[in-house]
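Hi support team,

I submitted a single chain yesterday and got back a structure, but I'm not sure I'm reading the token output correctly. Could someone confirm the output below corresponds to the sequence I sent? I've pasted both exactly as they appear in my results page.

Thanks,
R.
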Amino acid sequence: MTYVVDEKCIKCKHMDCVEVCPVDCFYEGENMLVIHPDECIDCGVCEPECPVEAIFSDTEDGAEKWAEINRKYSELWPNINEKKEPPKDAEKWQNIENKFEKYFSEKPGS
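Hi R., thanks for writing in. Yes, this is the structure output for that exact sequence:
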């Protein structure tokens, strides 16, 4: 078991999860974060920290797609181990649906 980040993170990127992760398994894309499944120790401390509920166990229904996305991009994007400020308009993106199809960026974070 591991944890995954889904599309709710896109354009929100609050990073409260990064601050509490004991093993630094988060990776930053231009507009979302992902978790490296081989580095995650399944401690679960990140899940309740996400204000948009974008983190969940890979054993939940529908997690397969997100597990693949998290694995792929955690190999391409830079590791992040310190919390940064979320985008200024993060709040407006919190309840938007189908963000992956419309807004996902493959570019690495800065």
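A quick pointer for reading it: Strands lie at 3-5, 26-28, 33-35, 55-57, 79-80. Let us know if anything else looks off.

Best,
Support desk
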